């Protein structure tokens, strides 16, 4: 998985490409955990993500929890049908803000 970040004002934009699986899920969480300390909004662009495993969902939930704990927000953008169906099946589409 490729992670590209851009910070603008109090927002961190993250473009992801590839798969979020048992290897890349923890990598995503590690790389972004420190980066979200000084932001109010985290936006994950999932346009180029074609697969999300349970480890990927765990990483996104962990980031969501960290943002909520500091009164920030996290948004998921540009989900393809397979990723969106995983979120709907697990009912996480009601937890995450999905654009």
TrEMBL record:
<dbReference type="InterPro" id="IPR036513">
    <property type="entry name" value="STAS_dom_sf"/>
</dbReference>
<dbReference type="InterPro" id="IPR002645">
    <property type="entry name" value="STAS_dom"/>
</dbReference>
<dbReference type="Pfam" id="PF01740">
    <property type="entry name" value="STAS"/>
</dbReference>
<dbReference type="InterPro" id="IPR003658">
    <property type="entry name" value="Anti-sigma_ant"/>
</dbReference>
<comment type="similarity">
    <text>Belongs to the anti-sigma-factor antagonist family.</text>
</comment>
<feature type="domain" description="STAS">
    <location>
        <begin position="1"/>
        <end position="99"/>
    </location>
</feature>
<dbReference type="GO" id="GO:0043856">
    <property type="term" value="F:anti-sigma factor antagonist activity"/>
</dbReference>
<protein>
    <recommendedName>
        <fullName>Anti-sigma factor antagonist</fullName>
    </recommendedName>
</protein>
